[in-house]
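// run 5 | inverse folding | seed 20
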């Protein structure tokens, strides 16, 4: 029957939504006002407790290009996966619910995608601070990269550009569009427990799978909102259990791929460990001395961490990271414990 025929569109735009009532109208309006008209907009209400779900439903009544999913809260990864499952686009793009895009974003990106039959198209973006708007600066030159160029120029510095900590390409999925089959092979493999590194866990694997990409440099088409209050100030007791999940996914992809990114992953792992140390410094009296020592020992005797800290170059690390590496190299439980406590005092003074 005609009603059962699936309608395919040029691009599906997936917006995961959770507690962004203040910003969601501007986000949706910026997408609906796009110069490009051939798209479907998939709004994923990830169990948001505010009025976001109702707002999405109201928009869907006015525009038949909009699909709305209401689901139990499962986090950013599960929301993106839910959106992808119902998408029909030849290409897939993402927008965060508290951000907004420029009028020509997807028109410009799809123009390059079609011209070059690109597996991925990337663009520059703005960082939106409460008091200013800052242009992104990415390491690579703009233009078209075939597989040979990717292997020569992009892959060797894709995750680590050579200075700590600077990505060659930012891992964010919202500054990129993906050919469907490239994304399909990777997004569903991302562990839904990941709370940090959600983007890296599939954007870099997609890049490794791509036969070509196009980078639109110096066109800042996406507006990424920086909210200092969104950075957690409280201790996350589960962070250590999940923090390494994006690293393990990238490590797995490195084994699967024809290109070895393991050296770059050493620095990515160190980047994640920094967050673990900061988090443990927030524990204060919440955690017993025994439990604190247990976490420190698990860090000091983790095989991946030990391998990474042996191979990283101390000379390019900031002093605080250099100190962490030295304690781990010495397997100094006391040294790392003292450092965490000193950092805890620093955080309290800073507040």
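// decoded
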């Amino acid at each position: 029957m005609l009603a059962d025929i699936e309608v395919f569109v040029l691009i599906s735009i997936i917006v995961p939504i959770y507690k962004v009532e203040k910003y969601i109208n501007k986000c949706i309006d910026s997408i609906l006002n796009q110069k490009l008209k051939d798209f479907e907009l998939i709004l994923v209400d990830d169990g948001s407790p505010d009025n976001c779900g109702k707002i999405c439903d109201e928009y869907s009544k006015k525009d038949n290009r909009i699909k709305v999913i209401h689901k139990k809260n499962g986090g950013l990864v599960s929301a993106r996966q839910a959106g992808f499952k119902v998408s029909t686009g030849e290409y897939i793009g993402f927008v965060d619910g508290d951000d907004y895009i420029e009028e020509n974003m997807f028109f410009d990106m799809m123009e390059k995608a079609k011209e070059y039959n690109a597996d991925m198209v990337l663009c520059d973006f703005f960082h939106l601070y409460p008091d200013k708007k800052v242009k992104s600066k990415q390491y690579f030159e703009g233009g078209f990269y075939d597989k040979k160029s990717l292997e020569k120029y992009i892959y060797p510095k894709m995750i680590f550009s050579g200075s700590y900590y600077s990505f060659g390409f930012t891992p964010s999925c919202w500054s990129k569009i993906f050919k469907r089959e490239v994304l399909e092979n990777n997004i569903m493999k991302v562990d839904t427990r990941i709370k940090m590194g959600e983007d890296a866990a599939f954007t870099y694997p997609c890049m490794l799978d791509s036969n070509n990409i196009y980078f639109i440099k110096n066109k800042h088409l996406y507006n990424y909102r920086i909210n200092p209050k969104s950075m957690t100030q409280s201790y996350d007791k589960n962070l250590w259990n999940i923090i390494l999940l994006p690293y393990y996914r990238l490590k797995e992809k490195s084994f699967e791929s024809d290109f070895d990114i393991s050296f770059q992953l050493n620095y990515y792992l160190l980047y994640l460990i920094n967050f673990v140390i900061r988090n443990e410094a927030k524990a204060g009296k919440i955690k017993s001395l025994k439990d604190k020592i247990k976490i420190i020992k698990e860090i000091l005797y983790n095989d991946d961490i030990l391998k990474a800290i042996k191979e990283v170059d101390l000379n390019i690390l900031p002093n605080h990271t250099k100190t962490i590496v030295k304690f781990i190299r010495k397997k100094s439980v006391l040294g790392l414990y003292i450092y965490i406590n000193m950092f805890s005092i620093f955080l309290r003074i800073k507040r």
